[in-house]
Amino acid sequence: MTTKTNPEVDQYMIDKNHPLTEEINKVREIILAVHPEITETIKWSSPTFIYKGNMASFFMNAKKHVSLMFHKGALINDSTGLLQGDGKEGRAAKFKDMQEILDRSDDLVSVVNGWIELQDAN
User: Fold this and answer.
1) What value does the mean pLDDT of the chain take?
2) φ, ψ at 118 (rounded to 5°)
3) Which pTM was predicted?
4) 11-48 exposure pattern, b = at least 16 Cβ within 10 A, e = fewer
5) Is residue 65 within 8 Å of 20, Cβ to Cβ?
6) In this structure, are residues 20 and 13 in contact, taking their beta carbons and an 8 Å threshold?
7) What is residue 96's DSSP assignment?
8) What's the pLDDT tens digit per position in 10-53?
9) How far is the C-alpha of 100 from the C-alpha of 17, rounded, in Å?
10) SS3 for 36?
11) Contact between residue 34 and residue 112 where contact means Cβ atoms under 8 Å apart
12) Measured in whole angstroms, how far is the alpha carbon of residue 86 from the centre of its chain?
């Protein structure tokens, strides 16, 4: 993990002992590397990324895939097709395994950059 991780989130991940901890930590690493002002914390009993507002939280009850909910994902211009769902605001990014995370890391970076652009425009 990068030195940018929040020790509180690191400890949460150790305590949670999730079957996809390695995969979740890879997603954390990718997101935190996108921009120096992205931070992470525990909010809603879940690791949550913040950039000028709550960006996304892991859905920790999912055990067969990594599920990351972008709280206002409907506002993000996602040309990659990574974000799923048709709710009023939220969109989810789901990864079935490490290979899919690696294969779609550029898409994840694109979505995070979409959030940054949206927040910086406000």
Assistant:
1) 95
2) -60, -45
3) 0.94
4) ebbeeeebebeebbbbbbebbbebeeebbbeeeeebbb
5) yes
6) no
7) S
8) 999 999 999 999 999 999 999 999 999 999 999 999 999 999 99
9) 21
10) coil
11) yes
12) 18
Query: From residue 57, how far is each of 13, 37, 101, 121 by CA, in Å?
Result: 13, 17, 16, 22
Tokens at residue 16, please?
A: 């949670």
Tokens of 77: 């211009």
Cα–Cα distance measured from residue 27 to residue 29, given in angstroms and rounded to the nearest whole number:
5
Could you give all domains of the chain from N- to C-terminal order, each with its CATH number? 7-112 (3.90.1150.200)
Please name the residue that has the structure tokens 């950059």: 113
Q: Give CA–CA dist 58/119, Å, rounded.
A: 20
User: What is the Cα–Cα distance from 94 to 7, expressed in whole angstroms?
Assistant: 25
* Confidence band of 3 (pLDDT split at 50, 70, 90): low
Please give the order of strands across the beta sheet that includes 91-95.
39-43, 46-50, 54-58, 66-70, 91-95
